[in-house]
Specification:
Layout lengths: L1 H5 L4 H15 L4 H18 L3 H8 L5 H5 L12 H16 L7 H17 L4 H6 L6 H6 L7 H10 L9
């Protein structure tokens, strides 16, 4: 975002920088990531005249080890957008109820109840329209649902302590 802010008045430069950064981001392994990062640094030294932008691109090398940690977990998301959305929702709910009261156990139970409701809530109409087969996060994660009603799904799953019949 700070790189975008540096060259917002130069749209062609912004497009060039962002395409190179996306190319870097999509590197399939650590080795290619490092190679692409070196190429960006070389390109920045030759072609970028804005000192602040050039410095930001050169400073990426210092953060390289942190970026490369993502390659140790190939199935994980590289960005935290999905988690941030859930955490923002949770923060808004906690703020509206003025955070926690009483004991740590009460706070734990509140958060657990909030997570249960979030996992079983039905998707909004736009998601249902674009993806008719999807109904809730529970179904997406498990690949099935117990009942068409989200409340029945919640009651069945919670009454069985999260287990299917016949499994222990």
């Amino acid at each position: 975002m700070s790189i975008r802010k540096c060259c917002r008045r130069l749209p062609t430069l912004l497009q060039e920088v962002t395409s190179r950064l996306w190319h870097l981001y999509k590197a399939p392994n650590k080795r290619q990531f490092s190679q692409r990062l070196r190429r960006i640094r070389t390109w920045a030294n030759k072609h970028v005249e804005l000192e602040t932008l050039r410095q930001k691109l050169l400073n990426l090398k210092g953060k390289s080890i942190k970026f490369q940690a993502a390659y140790d977990f190939p199935d994980a998301y590289r960005t935290s957008n999905n988690l941030d959305r859930l955490m923002n929702y949770q923060d808004r709910v906690l703020y509206s109820m003025q955070y926690f009261h009483r004991s740590k156990e009460a706070a734990r139970l509140q958060l657990r109840a909030m997570a249960l409701l979030w996992n079983f809530h039905p998707y909004a109409s736009r998601t249902k329209f674009n993806h008719p087969a999807r109904s809730s996060p529970f179904q997406d994660l498990n690949g099935f649902q117990y009942h068409d009603s989200w409340l029945h799904n919640l009651l069945i799953a919670s009454s069985m302590n999260g287990r299917r019949p016949g499994k222990r």
